[in-house]
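Work package 3, deliverable 3.1, input record:
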Amino acid sequence: MTWRDMAIATLERVGMAAVKGFIAFVALYVIPMALLAPALRGLREVMVSGPSPEAIITYFTAIGVFFTVAAELAKNTILEHALSIGRGLAMMVFTIYATNAGVFSLLITSFGTPIEITIDVSRLIVVFIGIGLLDMARGVLKALNWACERADREP
Amino acid sequence: MKVALRALSISLILLWLFVSMLLITVLYSAIRIEIGQVSTETEPTETGARLIIDVPIHNRGFHDITDLELSIDVVVELTGDVIMSSTSYVPIIRKGEEGHLVHVIELNLTEIAENERACRALVLNDTNLIMIARISLTYAYMFRAEIEANSTSPWGAPMSGLTVSLELPGPGEGELVAILSFENHASFSYSFQLEAFNHLGDSLGSSGTTDVYANSTFDGLAISIPVDTALWTGSGYVLAHLFIGSAILTLEVARF
């Protein structure tokens, strides 16, 4: 492979990463913010604890776009699998942060009476974390499998 | 390695399916829970009143409701004292069944009288009574929900703005005169009696009973208390006994 071919391949990969990153940004941030803006404002006004809905979408987009671009750039390398495991870990931490560890509190006012509603879904979050850990284990196995197959292919 | 990977992938798909199904059925079931016609019944007791609330709950969903608890507290805003507390609990309402949450609220004036600070605040000061209602339950053994609501209602004091001045008995006199000014801001009528004590706690004597009607005002009402001169020590205090129904509230209104 000549330097020219390598430069073209790199440019193609960077271009594809940029396109995928842009699509992820539009899908995860621009569309939800445009469609859900009034609902998010209403939700922010009644939420007592935890991060604001806008912050949740922003952080989710940041994680999504970063891992989409990074995975595209690291395609067909061991880094692709490492990033997959990293994405699983990041999503687990994000889930705990965004759901306030599974405890939501809302304060609404009905006929002048303040009503506080608390919903505890922490058990479900534990299930999500368990599934996330299994997903990460699968990522590790995939990486090992990829390394073994690559070693077998090389003379 | 490939077999393990495939097994793990299938397990993950099954787990996601299971969790998704659980979430869908929980949301669907939650909107199928119906609260029937709430019936209330009030009955007088010797020292107040009892309110019985019966809430029928039809659990038409796919999951059980457990640890259903309703508690109601009444707090005096001025002092922060809880003057009434009631809790009811239903351990389980199984799917497809109907359960009844029966809640009994008992207004016991004798119990309120035992809390001297709250009793004094309620008799002498217009304030607010804050009712805090809290309902909590666990749904599908997994989701815990709690709803808390506060409502405030004004309380009119039976002896609002009470001022008392005393005319002590002179040498050889056997009568202590208390001059009272107050307004009854309560919505109920009652009667009261004054009783004088010396500083040792011995009763010197009691006045006659005075009736106070709802929303009435007294300005310079003179009440004489015949005193036992043999027990007179020159110092002591005056208690007011308020007779509300069959309950008696007692509080100190003056010192001399």
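The CA atoms of residues 46 and 107 of chain A lie 5 Å apart.
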